Amino acid sequence: MKLTYSFGARIGGSKYPVYLLFLFITLLYQQNVQAQQPITDPTLDSILTIDLKEVIVISSFKKSMEHKAQSKPLSTLDQYLESSKKVTMIKRGAYAWDPMLNDMGSERLSITIDGMRIFGACTDKMDPITSYVDVSNLSDVQVNSGQQGARHGNTIAGAIDMRLEKSNFKPTGWTATVETGYETNNASRIVGGELNFSDERFYLDTDIIHRKAENYFAGGGEEVAFSQYEKYNLSANAGYQVSKNQKLLASFIFDEAHDVGYPALPMDVSLARAFIGSISWIQTEFIGELTHWETKLYANTITHVMDDSKRPEVPIRMDMPGWSDTYGFYSQAKLTLDNHAFLGKIDGFYNRSLAEMTMHPNDPNKQEMFMLTWPDVHTLNYGFYLEDNVNLKEGALKVSTRFALQSFNVTDDFGLNSLKIFYPDLERRQTRTLKSVSVHYQKNFKKLQLNLGIAYGDRAPSVSEGFGFYLFNSFDNHDYIGDPELKNEKVLEGNFKIGYALKGFTIGFEGNYFHTRDYIIGEIDSNLSVMTIGADGVKVYTNLSYANLYNLSVDMDYKITTELDWSGLVTYHRGTDHNGRNLPFISPFTYRTQLTYDDEHFSGTLSLTGALDQTKFNPGFGEDRTQAYAILSLSLGKTFSLGKNDLYAKVGLENLFDTYYSTYSDWNNIPRMGRNFFMTLSYAIN
Ligand SMILES: [Cu+2]
Hints:
Layout: H1 2-15, H2 18-25, E1 34-36, E2 54-57, H3 61-67, H4 77-82, E3 87-90, E4 98-101, E5 109-113, E6 116-117, E7 138-145, E8 158-164, E9 173-183, E10 188-198, E11 202-213, E12 216-217, E13 223-224, E14 229-243, E15 246-260, E16 268-285, E17 290-307, E18 317-337, E19 340-360, E20 369-392, E21 395-410, H5 413-420, E22 429-444, E23 448-459, H6 463-467, E24 471-473, E25 478-481, E26 489-502, E27 505-524, E28 537-559, E29 564-577, E30 590-598, E31 602-611, E32 629-642, E33 645-654, E34 676-685
Parallel strand pairs: 5-8, 25-28
Antiparallel strand pairs: 1-2, 2-7, 3-4, 5-6, 7-8, 9-10, 9-34, 10-11, 11-14, 12-13, 14-15, 15-16, 16-17, 17-18, 18-19, 19-20, 20-21, 21-22, 22-23, 23-26, 24-25, 26-27, 27-28, 28-29, 29-30, 30-31, 31-32, 32-33, 33-34
The structure holds copper (II) ion (CU).
């Protein structure tokens, strides 16, 4: 606690006048973007559970009126995710940041939309799943660390589930909102609206949003070329109450981004498009003691078109389109017996991933070259998940397990034969079994709460790790080749949390440890020659004997008065492999502190985020020492009542002192945005 506080005082004190701090303290506003979920989970009735998930409330306008929970109402989903305690974002530009949980990226993560599996179509990770939804679609994002996320799929790092916003048969009738925002740094314009109808029998929610931004400017005024983007998103959700006990729901999202620049990469995206749809049947009563039966069928299709047509000088022109289609289902039900609350779930998905690369030599007499970078890999996964929440005296126990079968089928002959150059005995099909077991225990003392957990889990290689063919990584400047014979990665996980609450003051100390066997990472193979002009070498995905990773954090919250609140967070992370070599993308020591003020009419926040020098980096993966930084931001909000309707205005200043900085997770040290003034207006018609 001392540590965070002293940082706040230093910035406020010596470097910048103290009165500046206090001027804004009087106008501060309660910001509570992330809240630790209380130990009762509404989905499990009143049974006490020990789900230590973090819930990031996404505030659409409607919710912003209820919660006033956001510091920047129309910020991107990426910015919301970044406010989480455990999620960090890899940035390759201003758009489509790539989430990491517990310092682990997409291969080790399960990311779902309302429980639906969906996979990006880019071999270079330009299109994380989070880039195909917008805040206008969502009510909240649930972050489950480690095997606590196994309900949604096999995972090492945990699960991020983005939950769609639904009126859910509330008798609100017709409601509408119009929202608009502008940001000065990159001339970002945002226009959105919602039109909803809901009664006890039927609801229909629709929303639309458009975002367009030009290049942004780093601190000090340097323009970051190729950082523009444009995106449209629209969605519709409908529900029909068939009987008191039965509901039929449907959801649809269309998302399309154009002209997206990736300043940290040698290529851009001319089109990234997703269609995401589902139908669900929900029954409160099912068979006998089984309740809350929910079955969902879903499908999604993604098109990703990557090229370098806008780059002035390239050694060779490349077109790299990719496609990913996923079809899936799940069916789950609950059972309550004495002090046990069970949840059982069966699920499955079928994914098809295909990506191509065509090289067009500058010399017209030379032939074009064509490769399949993902050889039309079909992945079939079906699994069974069971959890038991046991309500104990002054505590709780949660036991959960998942078992799944996952098979790969390389369906394209050309792609299969290309991989056979490296793996002559490669079979077209393969099947793997995946397992997860976890036990969590919670004990409540008077003002103290103790959580302990231990877990085992594994995962199959991703399509890139298993079947990728000359995937260029601009960070370490190597071509990557997959290995279909990789072993599954297996993790042994331990975690704890100690929470202490006094009147108005809470403190939590939290940590987790991942011992990962057969850790998958790319290693240099000096016998192979590069495909990409200018690349330094070729890496092949390999199983390391093991890698260790741990994360520690302390967070505090102090309610100074009913209106004024202070919170702080410090985190420490460390990751090494079996040789003591640093793992890439491990965060240095970070801190965050925030003062918020909130009364009926005004709201405001003053926040400071920063990191110390990154001294534990991995030069073999293109990393270097990232300098320490501290960034100060503030925002002010006010609600105006216009008759029956409400107008909510919010203004803010980010990176107040226009600091030039980049973080450990900025691809190729691309600088972050400099000073930025934003304003948003939301108008609700009730
Ligand atoms: Cu791409």
